[in-house]
Amino acid sequence: MKISAMLGQRFKETPAECKIDSHIFMIRGGYMKRVGEGIYSLLPPGLRIVKKIEKIIREEMNRIDGQEVLMPVAIPATLWKESGRFESVGSELLRFKDRGGVDMVLGMTHEEAVVHLARHTAESYMNYPFMVYQIQTKFRDEPRSRGGLIRVREFTMKDAYSFHTSQEDLEDYYKKCHKAYERIFARAGVPEVISVQSDSGMMGGKIAHEFMLITEIGEDRLVICDECDFRSNMEVAECIVEDIEGEVQELKCVETPHCKTIEDLCEFLSIKPEQTCKAVMFLKKNSLEPVVVFVRGDLEVNETKVQNYLHEEIIPDDNSTDTGICYGFVGALNLNFKKNGTVLFDNSLKGMKSMVCGANKENYHYTGVNLERDLDKPVEYNDFAKAYQGGICPCCGKKTISLCRGIEVGNIFQLGTKYTKAMEMQYIDKDGKPQYPIMGCYGIGVGRLAASVCEAKHDANGPIWPMSIAPWQVHMCAIRPDNEEVAKAANGLYETLQDMGVEVIFDDRKVSAGVMFADADLLGVPVRVVISPKTLGRGVVEVSFRDKSFKGDISLDNAAGEIKKIVKEQLAKFDI
Amino acid sequence: MKISAMLGQRFKETPAECKIDSHIFMIRGGYMKRVGEGIYSLLPPGLRIVKKIEKIIREEMNRIDGQEVLMPVAIPATLWKESGRFESVGSELLRFKDRGGVDMVLGMTHEEAVVHLARHTAESYMNYPFMVYQIQTKFRDEPRSRGGLIRVREFTMKDAYSFHTSQEDLEDYYKKCHKAYERIFARAGVPEVISVQSDSGMMGGKIAHEFMLITEIGEDRLVICDECDFRSNMEVAECIVEDIEGEVQELKCVETPHCKTIEDLCEFLSIKPEQTCKAVMFLKKNSLEPVVVFVRGDLEVNETKVQNYLHEEIIPDDNSTDTGICYGFVGALNLNFKKNGTVLFDNSLKGMKSMVCGANKENYHYTGVNLERDLDKPVEYNDFAKAYQGGICPCCGKKTISLCRGIEVGNIFQLGTKYTKAMEMQYIDKDGKPQYPIMGCYGIGVGRLAASVCEAKHDANGPIWPMSIAPWQVHMCAIRPDNEEVAKAANGLYETLQDMGVEVIFDDRKVSAGVMFADADLLGVPVRVVISPKTLGRGVVEVSFRDKSFKGDISLDNAAGEIKKIVKEQLAKFDI
Questions:
Q1: Is the pLDDT of residue B204 over 80?
Q2: For A40, which of A32, A97, A214, A301 could close a Cys bridge (C-beta 3.0–4.6 Å)?
Q3: Are the beta carbons of A86 and A105 closer than 8 angstroms?
């Protein structure tokens, strides 16, 4: 394609709304254009990358016996009512009525639609296992879209669903799919993507992994062991603490004027946070009943763990609901609620011989609290705390926990029978009995992956696309195209390369070399070929790599063949 | 792919909701499954056909320098408000609000989105002309979906938009695109698709063509000349009538008791319908003001022509609005409305010397009406009548008009500056002046084309897919796969064909030959290969074509090579 004919503009200025590099470069490079909040149109360079990623995904899904299907974007709400998610999912599920007043949703994920598709279609155990997938538009009404294609409302997703007659079979397939995902990310140029244990969230099911690209700008907090293979999303990472030395002390109620925070309290009493028992307050989202989580003073509460334990959503208690509790001085002893309330204790408090803890009375705390001794009934401890930097690895037991951030570029879930049971999908087993199939589901956001690769592979001037997904393979710059010799040589090379099947973007404009090179940097094509009066004077074209690993002359006579060879060599790196 | 592993079932019974062959076969053959009103999921055979059609379309769009882009499904209503269509388009445009209360629409066509994409992106005349296209999901909230993929609410569409700096340039490109469409339909196996002049409807613009597959089950009525190239949609086909011989007569008011229809009137007065002047009543949709169209009694009124003339929508007058007119006896003389009303005269009345016409008085008609003589002011005649079988061709003048029906599989429009003006998209011309680009747009419904091919190419047992878009190229049936020799030969051939790049669907199930062949007929794959103990006894496989044009034995030893040759030969027919 000739740049002069291509729709799209490239420019220097960073638009105000662009905060991260991939977003900046994909807007500045003319890859996409914002249409609305979290909604983009893709211009040719952006779509070409997306299509190449889709091809890689398709090949890997077919390799593990996936069958491509296509389910609708607009789905009758009846299906989501069957699964219960029409009610349970928040307003990120876009609901609307059609002209006949029928409730509909825009598909944000397709468990319901795929069960509808497979129900009554796979009625014998002989039809199992199978996996179907689609590459289709999804809409998720995110409250906060951000980072260009990193978090959008409308996006192209590959979603796959497998159906099995046993948990073992699902687990086998789950491993296969995990491998396929590793291949996909490696082929897309980001082999550094890692998988972490994750929360299954609104999907249901127990075992789930997210594939993460580690980066400062990631939204997810990750917990990784520097010594062993332990890798987990913060949401589910177990928090293990060392026991604190200490002696049993007498329970005393002491005045602690205005000490509403752990910090104030520690300063006032000259103690360390780990000697305190902190109360963190939430409300159940539906009933607005209070939930108090006690945790060692140096730790934070992990909301996801609390929600998973309660099986319901919680929100931070902003003190605007009259719960009857004494904010700033909440403690485990003599804690009373106006109506109902829930009290939870984190594992970190287990075995603590003596702690400082709120007295549920303005300006007073207890010291010497020993929960086993001082509470009327036995205490149940659970894991509600966040893992922390330098903490103990739940896997190898060393103090080697690191925290970092990542972008989730894919996820896989073992769903179990949640959807097949709710939607009454059954098959007849070998013994003639009806059974519910066991499901897995497997997602990759295509646009987000493209943006993530850009985030991982760029320099100050633009993206450095891997050859496997680059919008074009070769970027030709004809400097002084008004020079007859340049025009002839450049057009000839362009035609020859195209005939050879090389994907070429050809800058044929009458602009300065500076503009051309800046644009080439923004388009991030791996191999650049410059033809100018100067290079022709030497009988060569100048070839350089976008990643700066090579720059040199190639004789004009065999330029096409040599360039094709370079492209093939670079592509071969992704043949895994 | 092995049928045993493929999701989907084939069956004999015709589902009650299926009325036309393509719908029947695509449901019975497991190509798709209904999800809701006008909404389907595609199973592997259906999606494979669709993807092949998409590939053909993509190649032909690229051949005429199209650039593929991707615009959103969910579009902020602001863009549709800019063009005015947020208000002007009916409830087939699905409107909704997002979680923030922002008005949105589901894209049913993308003129607004493409102008948004190209606006400020193509600011110099040097960027022109260009064409961008997408293959994307659309949603059109049809009041009546029907015929499976023929008329759905959610569908995949290729929509292309070209931008030009002169009408001549648009016209040149329009012709190119017309040719590209002919190539697309020929390559998809329906070279018999014709283009007809059409109404531009809600798209705006003046010149438009529809590509039609002629078939009894088509929704569109077409007007075609048997002698010349005249081909038009009924909506816009000019109606030309021969003058009726007659003499000027005296105007008389006669009693015509209960003669409310032309039929009754003709019987009562012993005259022919062409001697009468018929009144056809409509209401303007917005104001409910009456519109009376007078037309010769043997002709019908073409609503589209009336709407185009009035530049507003009309609905039939069902007599429920108090217009002040005397239904059943409406005539051109002394016609009074309660408030405002519009009176129109069709060309067929021009020069009529003497007609019978309602007297605007219960049970009375005038005879001897001569409009020029009897009306106070000069009459303006226009073309409001429907063309009719045996009528006069507006092109060659012979009485050779035929009526038939067709399915619209594609359309092309010259839009002009309707959208660029409304949405303020400009470029700077050679003289430095701002100008509005001139647009064309070009659509093809991918699923509808698949269904139309099926409608055109099938027998009583199922589709007969052209090799170019068939879900697979070869359908292998292993009869008695429990027979070791059959299993070995069949699996061997299956592997070899796949290695050779032939697309094979392999029926490896332990079912009767009858079931296998019925399923093979439903899948409609062009080449069938049967391996059984009997054929192996002869050292051969049996090869037959789905269209019954060939059946014969091929030696097992060189079966793969021969089959590949057959496939290549059949594919070559579509290399145009």
A1: no
A2: A32
A3: yes
Give B472-572's CATH code, choosing from 3.40.190.10, 1.10.240.10, 2.60.40.10, 3.40.50.800: 3.40.50.800
Angstrom distances, CA of residue A49 to CA of A43, A167, A503, A525, B491: 10, 37, 12, 11, 38
Residue with tokens 């049971």: A421
In chain A, the residue whose alpha carbon lies closest to the alpha carbon of B76 is: A36
Total residues belonging to chain B: 576
ipTM score of complex: 0.91
User: Does residue B290 contact residue B281 with C-beta atoms inside 8 Å?
Assistant: yes
Distances (CA, A) of A307 to A313, A337, A452, A523: 5, 20, 30, 45
Q: Cβ(A108)–Cβ(B34) under 8 Å?
A: no
Q: Is the pLDDT of residue A442 over 90?
A: yes
Residues in chain A with CB shorter than 8 Å from the CB of B39 are: 72, 74-76
Partner residue facing A94 (CB), from B8, B98, B136: B98
pLDDT tens profile B339-382: 889 999 999 999 999 999 999 999 999 999 999 999 988 999 99
Q: Please report which residue ranges of B188-340 form alpha helices under DSSP H.
A: 262-269, 303-310
pLDDT digits (tens, 9 = 90+) for A41-88: 999 999 999 999 999 999 999 999 999 999 999 999 999 999 999 998
- Angular region, B344: left φ>0, alpha ψ -120 to 50, beta rest: beta
pLDDT band at A318 (very low <50, low <70, confident <90, very high): confident
Which of A196, A557, A116 minimizes the C-alpha distance to A409? A196
Nearest to A107 by CA among A89, A93, A91, A88: A93
Instruction: Provide, as residue numbers in chain B, all residues whose Cβ is less than 8 Å from the Cβ of A37.
Output: 76, 98, 100, 102
Most confident of A239-253, B128-142, B228-242: B128-142
Flag if A70 and B41 touch (Cβ within 8 Å). yes
Helix (H) or strand (E) holding A304: helix A303-310
**Nearest CA among B161, B160, B138 for reference residue B151:** B138
